[in-house]
Design goal:
By secondary structure, the protein is an alpha+beta fold. It folds into 2 domains: 108 residues, Endonuclease I-creI (Roll); 134 residues, Homing endonucleases (Endonuclease I-creI).
Length: 265
């Protein structure tokens, strides 16, 4: 039996980094793309099916892999997991459409032996489920911007956490309420016309947008693809709270850590 929180995380990761398509000649194809091979291996091991394929090209100098599912029964399993458990509007409508196709798609002139009853409902994420952990693994960013010669010190280091997505403004307003803070930014893409929304938490001091407001959630529902970078980012947060960035002798160590964090996110 697969743990419910693992399934919530899996759905969140799919909604950020996955795809599910139907091709009239080839049938269905589910995939999740990641630069973290261990995450995809964990998915394959937990579900007990699928394959992992390495991409022939790299992304930002990192190797890239794809977890893929194509056979009919396992597509049925994937659709059953997603059915009624999706958060994003676009993913929900996409899933309903694909389940209808799956239920009516003939294989060798015959319908498939299993039918999926569509659940016409979406999930609203909360702080007691792991959906956001999976979504942040796909779409989240942990950073440490470095500014030169600010506030009378050679280097000024700040800390920031953000997560974004095209459209779905309701989600970011909901997250703002859940974490009692965060700033929402919206920007329209001139070519696509879509609006990219994101919520940002920044700064180490106690306050409305303080990143520490999200710590308790990730302590409970650990990240997977971004776990190591989150740990380093949290160490930086502790250094800033202790005002190590004001100590000239400590700055080179902080600059190195900040560049390491930024290079991987």
């Amino acid at each position: 039996m697969i743990n419910n929180h693992w399934l919530e995380w899996f759905v969140g990761l799919y909604e950020g980094d996955g795809s599910l398509n139907f091709f009239s000649e080839k049938g269905f194809r589910f995939s999740i793309t990641s630069t973290d091979l261990k995450t995809l291996e964990n998915i394959k091991q937990t579900l007990g099916f699928g394959r992992i394929r390495k991409f022939p090209f790299k992304e930002k100098h990192l190797d890239k892999w794809n977890y893929e599912v194509e056979d009919r029964f396992n597509i049925y399993v994937i659709l059953s997991i997603l059915n009624g458990n999706l958060v994003l509007y676009k993913r929900y409508y996409e899933c309903v459409k694909l389940i209808n196709i799956f239920n009516n798609y003939l294989y060798k002139g015959k319908p498939y032996m299993y039918t999926i009853i569509i659940k016409y409902e979406q999930v609203i994420p909360n702080l007691n489920d792991a959906w956001l952990s999976g979504f942040v693994d796909a779409e989240g960013h942990f950073g440490c911007p470095v500014e030169v010669k600010r506030k009378h010190i050679p280097y000024y280091i700040s800390i920031i956490f953000e997560v974004g997505q095209n459209d779905e403004l309701w989600l970011f307003k909901h997250l703002q309420k859940l974490f009692k803070g965060g700033i929402i930014h919206s920007k329209r893409n001139k070519k696509s016309g879509k609006i990219h929304n994101r919520i940002i938490f920044k700064g180490s001091k106690i306050g409305k947008n303080n990143v520490s407001l999200v710590f308790s959630y990730f302590d409970r529902f650990s990240l997977r693809t971004k776990h190591n970078i989150f740990i380093k980012w949290r160490i930086m947060h502790k250094y800033l709270l202790d005002k190590k960035h004001l100590d000239r002798d400590y700055i080179p160590k902080l600059i190195k850590l900040a560049r390491d964090i930024n290079s991987k996110t």
